[in-house]
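User: I've been trying to design a sequence by hand for this structure and keep getting stuck. Would you show me what you'd pick, starting by listing the structure so we're on the same page?

Assistant: Good idea, let's start from the same input. This is the structure you sent:
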């Protein structure tokens, strides 16, 4: 397989600007000519091996930043947006989308934002015709989508919050429950355990924190740490929110909860210790859960956040779906990017996890771009704590490119050298290019169809 050339002009310019260097000074330090640097920054030339080595040796830069991060996400998001019928049938070539994501990321994000607002307006008019006559009928991004995009484009790693959580955990990693309770006590907060379904309720005036005694032990510790974050790390959370510049108060409030959740997970599973334990156990979720007192879902989610510059873990994707197939959590540090709208590919093993509760399902999968993955799926149903209480049923999937299989205990005994062992999966039917998929729900929007009334195969049409 030929090595893919690395075009990262925007990233290169960003690094130079961040260091306050002129093109001339930067070129000298990298050992290249000024015209050559200019061509690389404008994506007229790929980034050379000499420059990659110089960035690592001269500046100590994690060079994986050049080839990962926003670019693949932007390409995936643009492909999904441009597959909308509003753009007709002419999908720009993939090379053009990659060039746009690399050379004009601001333009790419503007297109994605424009399409998101269009969809939300269309859906609102379809279900709420009377909204046309109301004063609050102006278009505004969904707070949930806005917050999801914030974490998505931060690579699901918030450095300042992560390091603050790790510093907090260093005081006593062996008993995080006691550490959290002591921290709350030091802030004048008393904790009461109640036999109620509400997991957490904090009374600001009396400084009493009510927690559910019905919740699982790992959930209780997580909620204790979340409250520590809201009280002890408020200035840090607010500063991070200021940087994000959310469009609405609702989005800011949702994001603050998200950041507090992030702190709780990072404190429960401190970066350095957790990463080392993950490597030692070959990413065994159950062993890691027992070691850090966390749930399977918490461990899987934390593994997907190990993207600290200079100390990155395996690039994982992580997703959670409900029984209808709707994606309720999603993140990917891999080239696989999930659909922003709708559900996940029905051929993916995450959907089968509901049929085998309490078991891990393994799958070797290949996406239409030829990239191969190993995917691990399991149900994570959550009891309501009493008879008759509703049970929340979800399934999660965690995976990575198959080249990392040796670092995963779940890859043992899988025939990763056999091409036929990899099941074909897609991202979304609307943009999937597979022609003969027996589970296709809708035709690919960028392809024309042949309709034959005298013939019926697996699909009632033929994709040209």
């Amino acid at each position: 397989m030929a090595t893919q050339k690395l075009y990262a002009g925007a990233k290169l310019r960003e690094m130079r600007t961040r260091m306050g260097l002129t093109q001339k000074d930067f070129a000298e330090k990298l050992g290249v000519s000024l015209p050559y640097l200019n061509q690389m920054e404008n994506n007229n030339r790929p980034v050379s091996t000499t420059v990659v080595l110089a960035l690592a040796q001269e500046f100590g830069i994690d060079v994986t930043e050049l080839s990962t991060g926003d670019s693949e996400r932007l390409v995936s998001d643009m492909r999904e947006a441009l597959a909308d019928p509003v753009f007709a049938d002419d999908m720009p070539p993939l090379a053009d989308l990659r060039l746009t994501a690399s050379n004009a990321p601001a333009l790419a994000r503007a297109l994605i934002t424009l399409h998101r607002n269009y969809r939300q307006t269309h859906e609102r008019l379809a279900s709420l015709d009377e909204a046309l006559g109301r004063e609050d009928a102006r278009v505004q991004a969904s707070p949930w989508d806005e917050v999801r995009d914030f974490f998505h484009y931060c690579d699901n790693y918030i450095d300042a919050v992560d390091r603050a959580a790790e510093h907090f955990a260093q005081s006593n990693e062996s008993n995080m429950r006691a550490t959290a309770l002591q921290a709350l006590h030091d802030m004048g907060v008393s904790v009461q355990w109640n036999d109620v379904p509400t997991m957490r309720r904090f009374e600001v005036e009396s400084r009493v924190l009510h927690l559910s005694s019905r919740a699982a032990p790992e959930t209780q510790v997580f909620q204790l740490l979340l409250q520590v974050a809201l009280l002890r790390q408020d200035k840090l959370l607010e500063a991070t929110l200021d940087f994000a510049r959310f469009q609405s108060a609702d989005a800011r409030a949702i994001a603050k909860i998200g950041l507090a959740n992030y702190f709780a997970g990072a404190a429960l599973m401190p970066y350095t210790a957790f990463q080392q334990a993950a490597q030692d156990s070959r990413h065994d979720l159950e062993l890691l859960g027992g070691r850090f007192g966390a749930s399977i879902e918490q461990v899987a989610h934390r593994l997907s956040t190990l993207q600290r510059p200079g100390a990155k873990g395996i690039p994982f994707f992580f997703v959670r779906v409900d029984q209808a197939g709707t994606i309720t959590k999603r993140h990917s540090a891999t080239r696989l990017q999930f659909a922003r709208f709708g559900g996940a590919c029905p051929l993916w093993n995450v959907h089968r996890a509901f049929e085998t509760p309490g078991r891990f399902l393994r799958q070797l999968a290949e996406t239409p771009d030829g990239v191969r993955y190993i995917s691990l799926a399991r149900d994570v149903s959550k009891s309501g704590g009493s008879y008759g209480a509703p049970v929340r049923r979800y399934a999660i999937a965690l995976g990575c490119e198959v080249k990392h299989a040796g670092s995963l205990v779940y890859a043992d005994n899988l025939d990763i050298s056999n091409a036929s062992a990899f099941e074909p999966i897609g991202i979304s039917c609307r943009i999937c290019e597979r022609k003969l998929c027996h589970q296709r729900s809708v035709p690919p929007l960028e392809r024309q169809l042949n309709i034959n009334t005298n013939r019926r195969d697996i699909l009632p049409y033929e994709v040209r």
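That's my pick for every position. To get oriented when you compare it with your attempt: The chain has 17 helices and eleven strands. Residues 103 and 340 are 23 Å apart (CA to CA).
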